[in-house]
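User:
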Amino acid sequence: MQKPADIASLLTTNPDEGFALAIKLSRLAVKLTQPDAEIRASLRSAYEQDAMALVAVSHVVATHFATIAAANDYWKG
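Assistant: Predicted structure:
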């Protein structure tokens, strides 16, 4: 498994950028786990109506965001 070339650092200038990075990390993890775009698209209908799956997605993004926030010293001056 290769490291995504476009994620050079967890450092961001503000929380909004940190949240966007958390989402990007989550999406890249799914893409690396299931590289076939057609399979990913076919699976989407299974989880897009599943409340527990959506909560799980939120948890993954929140975990990434917490890691990024810590790496950025919680954006303290």
